Recover the amino acids of this structure.
């Protein structure tokens, strides 16, 4: 706490301190004019500014701003530098509008493709969410504008989001739903963290001491401010004690009074209140005392939005290299209302009043392309007429190639409500089917914030996933479709074949009061790949107009202690005729058998650009966490000793190279040994197995010394059955054998635990 903040705390009255802990209105903090403490404004994000006019009374009446691709799109870029650049642009715009903090990035895990807010979130994978989120934060904050990484934590559904209790075991929280936030905190130190609406295991996030203080503040070392999601606070005093500093928006003064009364009664100490106020003051003063000038060049940023979209679009299918299109040699038909009225962003708090919209039709005309356009369906995206369908079919017969612009209207996915189906509007699916019946050269261009089913997937030649690509998505689409830009995005989430295949199908979104995360750590590709399930498109998938060859996988060492880590390198070559970018993915598979784990987990990715014939070496650094899981017994990250597979791939289902390593754990104890522990439990762990080696070999010798005939004459089951019984009997069952008492067994168990702790 700096001296200025200490001085201000000494001068503030109790009522002023309480007042600083809630907003002045919907978007601003309270000032204390007599002490020169100003009010600062925050703005919705994270894909563009939704900033209220200075004198506005309607919190939804926002200034025009540039709408950039949503998180669902930018995550598919797998490009840290791109996310940082986006953050820098938003920081410039925020300074121009005197915005102190951009409310983003949103990095909650995509637990189910039904979540209505998935368009804003980055990935089903916590490593991707953390790395890209941290890059975005660094970009924004390089302009001395704050960020508010959200929503902390387990905000994975819109259904009853204000009150539902997400029932999640600690290992699942630690491995799936918390690491993205941890990475952002440790790599980029976000100015603020926004707590979620929901409860976690019965305690609302806004007053959850374990979440906000014990974990975030004390364990992770977070130094910034925790702010509530808008309207998330229930018990303000409990929130202060749990480390929630700022309640937003204005509470009408009621919760300020709660704080005052709690201090007077002794329920809340002045030290606890001062801690909260100090974080608010630090946020306010850091911005106002170091404010940078901002340049808001909307034309420049509009062009940048297209470039970001180009890096983020994913070519899902390209049969017989139909794309890129050949203009003007081909007669090309565009159909579908998204071609002239694209859905560029999500609904709710991230909806931008965009500076200007450039559709695919606009961009095609600007490029001088001779493209025919017919609607195909009505402007509402969900209805059609026989005349529109007939017009599209006739035009398709006459065209060389048909590009169908399809996707989800805003009414199908938005903040505030979850989807009930993975299907696109029926009229759009039917249109694609009918056009495919009269023309084999069909390209589908998708506008959606989350996975959709594709009943026509085998009937079309090419599919370009554009997600919600911002206000200049049309330029990006034309550049990719006609080959000016080589697509390079890859899916940051799995596209399942059916809703029924999804990991949480049976429990999402719960019974209204609670939602049980019964799938545990098996989220996204961790579920599909571990179960060897067919999917529509796998995690990490994305095609290019060129081809890439992977070779020369090298490791700095093949045996090491987990704390040492290992360097992994691979050479990638562009074997095609066009310059392109490839996203190299590194996965780790635990083969020790000590704990139930996914078949593979992403632990590294890099995006590189290669000219035709060019090769580059890509290097990854793996640390202890790259091999570890959260050990609920010892309450620490633990990488068991044994074999691991390091895989390099172009997707989770397209593994090109593998290598095996032997890891020695720096933590010897996988669990606490008790009289209920079995020999088999201990044999799965290298260090524990060493403790019972002699006893195990004695049991093996007993079995091996008898022939099968001798054994069958003495016992009513085969040798393997006897071995299984020996390995599965708990130590307590040895009481009475060889004169052992329970005291002897307890002493033996105690000795085992002591040996592991040395």
């Amino acid at each position: 706490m700096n001296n200025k903040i200490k001085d201000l705390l000494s001068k503030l009255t109790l009522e002023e301190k309480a007042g600083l802990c809630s907003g002045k209105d919907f978007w601003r903090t309270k000032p204390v004019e007599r002490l020169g403490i100003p009010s600062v404004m925050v703005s919705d994000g994270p894909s563009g500014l939704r900033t209220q006019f200075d004198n506005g009374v309607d919190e939804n009446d926002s200034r025009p701003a540039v709408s950039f691709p949503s998180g669902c799109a930018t995550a598919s870029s797998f490009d840290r530098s791109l996310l940082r650049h986006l953050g820098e642009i938003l920081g410039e715009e925020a300074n121009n509008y005197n915005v102190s903090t951009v409310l983003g990035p949103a990095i909650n895990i995509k637990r189910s493709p039904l979540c209505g807010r998935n368009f804003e979130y980055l990935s089903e994978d916590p490593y991707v969410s953390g790395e890209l989120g941290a890059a975005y934060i660094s970009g924004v904050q390089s302009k001395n504008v704050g960020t508010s990484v959200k929503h902390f934590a387990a905000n994975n559904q819109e259904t009853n989001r204000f009150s539902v209790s997400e029932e999640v075991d600690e290992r699942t929280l630690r491995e799936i739903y918390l690491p993205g936030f941890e990475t952002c905190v440790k790599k980029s130190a976000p100015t603020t963290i926004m707590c979620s609406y929901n409860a976690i295991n019965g305690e609302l996030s806004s007053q959850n001491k374990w979440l906000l203080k014990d974990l975030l503040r004390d364990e992770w070392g977070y130094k910034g401010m925790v702010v509530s999601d808008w309207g998330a606070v229930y018990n303000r005093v409990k929130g202060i004690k749990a480390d929630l500093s700022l309640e937003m928006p204005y509470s009408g003064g009621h919760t300020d009074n709660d704080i005052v009364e709690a201090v007077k009664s002794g329920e809340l100490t002045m030290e606890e209140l001062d801690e909260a106020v100090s974080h608010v003051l630090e946020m306010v003063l850091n911005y106002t005392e170091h404010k940078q000038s901002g340049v808001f060049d909307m034309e420049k940023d509009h062009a940048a939005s297209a470039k970001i979209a180009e890096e983020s679009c994913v070519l899902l299918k390209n049969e017989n290299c139909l794309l890129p299109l050949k203009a003007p040699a081909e007669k090309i038909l565009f159909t579908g209302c998204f071609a002239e009225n694209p859905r560029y962003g999500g609904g709710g708090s991230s909806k931008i009043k965009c500076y200007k919209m450039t559709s695919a039709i606009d961009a095609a005309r600007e490029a001088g392309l001779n493209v025919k356009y017919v609607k195909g369906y009505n402007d509402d995206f969900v209805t059609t007429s026989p005349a529109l369908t007939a017009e599209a079919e006739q035009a398709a017969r006459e065209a060389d190639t048909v590009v169908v612009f399809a996707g989800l209207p805003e009414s199908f996915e938005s903040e505030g409500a979850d989807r009930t189906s993975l299907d696109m509007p029926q009229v759009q699916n039917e249109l694609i089917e009918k056009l495919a019946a009269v023309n084999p050269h069909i390209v589908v261009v998708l506008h959606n914030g989350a996975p959709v089913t594709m009943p026509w997937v085998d009937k079309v030649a090419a599919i370009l996933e554009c997600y919600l690509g911002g206000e200049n998505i049309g330029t990006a689409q034309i550049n990719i479709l006609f080959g000016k830009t080589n697509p390079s995005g890859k899916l940051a989430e799995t596209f399942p074949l059916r809703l029924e295949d999804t990991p949480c199908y049976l429990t999402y979104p719960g019974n209204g009061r609670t939602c049980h995360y019964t799938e545990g750590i098996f989220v996204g590709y961790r579920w599909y790949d571990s179960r060897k399930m067919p999917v529509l498109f796998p995690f990490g998938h994305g095609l290019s107009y060129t081809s890439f060859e992977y070779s020369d996988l090298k490791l700095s060492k093949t045996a090491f202690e987990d704390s040492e880590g290992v360097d992994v390198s691979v050479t990638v070559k562009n074997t095609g005729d066009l310059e392109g970018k490839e996203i190299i993915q590194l996965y780790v598979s635990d083969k020790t058998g000590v704990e139930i784990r996914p078949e593979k987990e992403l632990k590294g990715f890099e995006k590189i650009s290669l000219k035709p014939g060019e090769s580059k070496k890509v290097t990854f650094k793996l640390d202890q966490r790259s091999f570890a899981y959260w050990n609920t017994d010892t309450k620490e990250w633990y990488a068991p000793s044994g074999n691991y597979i390091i895989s390099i791939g172009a997707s989770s289902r397209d593994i090109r190279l593998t290598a095996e390593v032997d890891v020695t754990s720096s933590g010897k104890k996988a669990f606490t040994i008790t009289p209920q522990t079995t020999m088999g439990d201990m044999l799965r762990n290298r260090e524990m197995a060493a403790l019972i080696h002699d006893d195990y070999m004695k049991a093996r010798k007993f079995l091996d010394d008898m022939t099968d005939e001798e054994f069958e004459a003495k016992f009513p089951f085969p040798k393997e059955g006897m071995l299984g019984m020996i390995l599965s009997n708990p130590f307590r069952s040895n009481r009475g054998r060889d004169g052992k008492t329970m005291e002897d067994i307890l002493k033996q168990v105690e000795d085992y635990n002591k040996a592991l702790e040395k």
